[in-house]
TrEMBL record, chains A, B:
<keyword id="KW-0804">Transcription</keyword>
<protein>
    <submittedName>
        <fullName>Fumarate/nitrate reduction transcriptional regulator Fnr</fullName>
    </submittedName>
</protein>
<keyword id="KW-0238">DNA-binding</keyword>
<dbReference type="InterPro" id="IPR036388">
    <property type="entry name" value="WH-like_DNA-bd_sf"/>
</dbReference>
<dbReference type="GO" id="GO:0005829">
    <property type="term" value="C:cytosol"/>
</dbReference>
<dbReference type="GO" id="GO:0003677">
    <property type="term" value="F:DNA binding"/>
</dbReference>
<dbReference type="Pfam" id="PF00027">
    <property type="entry name" value="cNMP_binding"/>
</dbReference>
<feature type="domain" description="HTH crp-type">
    <location>
        <begin position="158"/>
        <end position="231"/>
    </location>
</feature>
<dbReference type="InterPro" id="IPR036390">
    <property type="entry name" value="WH_DNA-bd_sf"/>
</dbReference>
<dbReference type="InterPro" id="IPR014710">
    <property type="entry name" value="RmlC-like_jellyroll"/>
</dbReference>
<dbReference type="GO" id="GO:0003700">
    <property type="term" value="F:DNA-binding transcription factor activity"/>
</dbReference>
<dbReference type="InterPro" id="IPR018490">
    <property type="entry name" value="cNMP-bd_dom_sf"/>
</dbReference>
<dbReference type="InterPro" id="IPR050397">
    <property type="entry name" value="Env_Response_Regulators"/>
</dbReference>
<keyword id="KW-0805">Transcription regulation</keyword>
<dbReference type="InterPro" id="IPR012318">
    <property type="entry name" value="HTH_CRP"/>
</dbReference>
<dbReference type="InterPro" id="IPR000595">
    <property type="entry name" value="cNMP-bd_dom"/>
</dbReference>
<dbReference type="Pfam" id="PF13545">
    <property type="entry name" value="HTH_Crp_2"/>
</dbReference>
Length: 241, 241
DNA sequence: CGTGAGATTGAAGTCCATCAATGGTTGTGG
DNA sequence: CCACAACCATTGATGGACTTCAATCTCACG
């Protein structure tokens, strides 16, 4: 089950959180940052494979990933499902549900994770005397829209190898922004999950990884990846064929 | 060129605009609605084929479609481009650029159109003492995210005929909400544009239209469509194959 | 150490793209 | 107002990219 962890005096707060430069507080003054400390009064532990929320659940909060990795996915009646995003620490999930105040996707942990619960009521209240929070929240929503549109481009007009190359580079950059190595990392998702995200079958993903490795672009052993020739990888989707 | 039309005393305003129940003012009290009248101080006429904004342009406003149809599209360096949305009256375009305050896509008119210019500075100012505007704006952004995610699902896991059927139904519903016939309408976009949006080639779109017509699901002559068997069309993408 | 989920690799098949030729509609300028 | 051009749409034939089906293989975990 999901474990709830109350935030106490001694817990880390927004003002002291290492994710600050990636999360809601981006660009806030020290003064504003201190006001943020009342925003999150609860955190939730989500173990690998557990679900944070499901499509249709009433939305009372959005969630900032504190550590771990989540996936968001939508499912059709006939069982087909599509992963709409992988979410790293500092990213917000649940934004797609604010319109109807009920979640428009499922969110599941790919590894043990912890999220900060950002109650929508608190968010609204605090936004009143913290315009920078308002602005920052809009900015995050807007970024989500433009990222989804890049993904639409990827699914709509790129070939399989271009999609996978773009995926690797995107992941690399996001990990790098979080202080991890940009050239060597562990995939938290299966071939099937990568395939679902990229609109491909798991066998195709596997074959492409093998081909990339053969071409000397990457090394891959199970879920451990090393990017060898970053320029070469980028060329796959940059070449003006 | 784009024609700017100042909003004067006698111009239609938000409080009297027929699009009210679809646009920013949704669900506002009469009192709030009157405050909205200061929000839009300019409208812009965009003729068929003209561009409202381009990717990279600094963003100073978002735009509410008043009449006509727009498309938004993103382009890669190599020239490939993807249509990310078709926008009908009452819908807001430009939301994807708020994150960086510069536009993340191009917006082009498919037919002569007019948009209300919603300056971001005005929006922020007015949001201060009009919380319902704030809420409504968040709601619209959130809907855009969840719509994009439905589109990701469509591109990532549906077959060609399912995509086209879903497209027709979606368009039908949106036209219906605007007071037009849900069963008979004119496509404002070419086969190629439909194909770009759905991740298909124009020949595929054309063939599918012909097949749908042969199956008695629709009638189609150039851009004039009549949906004959709505249940049958929905079955194409609902059947639990 | 054994088991089972996940990953790899091969062979065959399908769906959609590409290439190509023709037909239809719209709009423009003589 | 007509003729022509330009654009858009249709349809057929062929090919290729990715999927599907299937048989191992690998490794993480009890």
């Amino acid at each position: 089950m999901l474990t709830s962890i109350p935030v106490t005096e001694i817990s880390p707060r927004c003002s002291t959180c290492g994710m600050g430069q990636l999360c809601l507080p981006v660009g806030m003054s020290q003064q504003d940052l201190l006001k943020m400390d009342t925003l999150v009064q609860e955190r939730v532990r989500v173990h690998k494979g557990e679900t944070l929320y499901r499509m249709g659940d009433p939305l009372t909060a959005v969630y900032a990933v504190r550590f771990g990795t989540l996936k968001t996915h939508v499912t059709l009646e006939d069982g087909r499902s599509q992963i709409t995003g992988f979410h790293l620490p500092g990213e917000i999930v649940g934004l797609d549900g604010l319109g109807e105040m009920q979640h428009a996707s499922d969110a599941t942990a790919l590894e043990d994770a912890e999220v900060c619960v950002v109650r929508f009521s608190e968010l609204q209240a605090l936004s009143g005397d913290l315009p920078s929070l308002q602005t920052q929240f809009l900015r995050l929503m807007s970024k989500e829209i433009s990222q989804d549109q890049v993904m639409l481009m990827t699914l709509g007009s790129m070939r399989a190898e271009e999609r996978l190359a773009a995926f690797l580079v995107n992941l690399s950059e996001r990990l790098s922004a979080r202080g991890y190595s940009s050239s060597e990392f562990v995939l938290r998702m299966s071939r099937e999950e990568i395939g679902s995200y990229l609109g491909l079958k798991l066998e195709t993903v596997s074959r492409l990884f093998s081909r990339f490795a053969e071409a000397g672009l990457i090394q891959i052993r199970q879920r451990h990846v090393k990017l060898i020739d970053m320029a070469g990888i980028k060329q796959i989707y940059n070449r003006s064929c």
